[in-house]
């Protein structure tokens, strides 16, 4: 496989590396209120374009077929909303005995409870030739099923652990984050 052929095949990863390098060299371009206006372009335009493009490329039969894969959806939702937050919680228990900043731990805990961004899941699934219809369904469905109160309980006191609805919401810190 030649270099040019390899670059064409790995265009997405190369694009990500290029954007990261440009952001490192000139971070002011992407800040809030900067020339790219990410508060508008990312929030509204980019996400809408991703869904519009995905919707155009999907056939109704593919979407209907994807909805019938109940075991797949169950696995994805359990992995995303139960297994991953639990794994992050266990990892944070180990990190809590180190001198790592408490706020970093709280941030990791919060991110560990969140479903993956819909746009990222769709783009990455499409880039690797996966089941795009299933990715769209699971991303959208998972966004409506986050563990109730998980983010609000981040950093809750240990005696409140029995009230948790999501393993990822178990606190690693002694004080509640408001």
Could you give a quick summary of the protein structure above?
By secondary structure, the chain is mainly alpha-helical. It is built from eight helices and no strands.
Note down, in words, how this protein is organized.
Helix 5 packs across helix 8 and helix 7 (118-127) runs antiparallel to helix 8 (132-144). The radius of gyration is 20 Å and the shape is globular. The protein is mostly helical and 178 residues long. Helix content is 62%, strand content 0%.
Provide keyphrases for this structure.
disordered C terminus; 62% helix; mainly alpha; single chain; 178 residues
> Helicity range of the residues?
55-70%
Summarize the biggest pleated sheet: none
Question: Which regions contain 5 or more consecutive residues with pLDDT less than 50?
Answer: 148-178
Percentage of residues in DSSP E strands: under 5%
Q: How would you sum up the global shape? A: globular
The succession of helices and strands, N to C, reads HHHHHHHH
């Amino acid at each position: 496989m030649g270099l040019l052929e390899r670059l064409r095949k790995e265009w997405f990863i190369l694009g990500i590396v290029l954007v990261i390098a440009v952001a490192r060299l000139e971070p002011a371009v992407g800040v809030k209120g900067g020339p790219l206006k990410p508060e508008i372009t990312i929030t509204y335009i980019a996400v809408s374009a991703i869904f519009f493009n995905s919707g155009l490329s999907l056939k109704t039969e593919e979407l209907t077929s994807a909805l019938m894969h109940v075991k797949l959806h169950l696995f994805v939702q359990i992995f995303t909303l139960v297994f991953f937050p639990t794994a992050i919680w266990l990892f944070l228990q180990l990190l809590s005995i180190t001198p790592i900043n408490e706020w970093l731990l709280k941030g990791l805990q919060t991110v560990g409870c969140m479903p993956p961004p819909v746009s990222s899941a769709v783009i990455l699934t499409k880039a690797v030739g996966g089941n795009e219809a299933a990715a769209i369904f699971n991303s959208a469905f998972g966004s409506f099923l986050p563990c109730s109160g998980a983010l609000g309980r981040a950093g809750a006191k240990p005696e409140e652990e029995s009230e948790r609805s999501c393993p990822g919401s178990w606190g690693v810190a002694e004080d509640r984050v408001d």
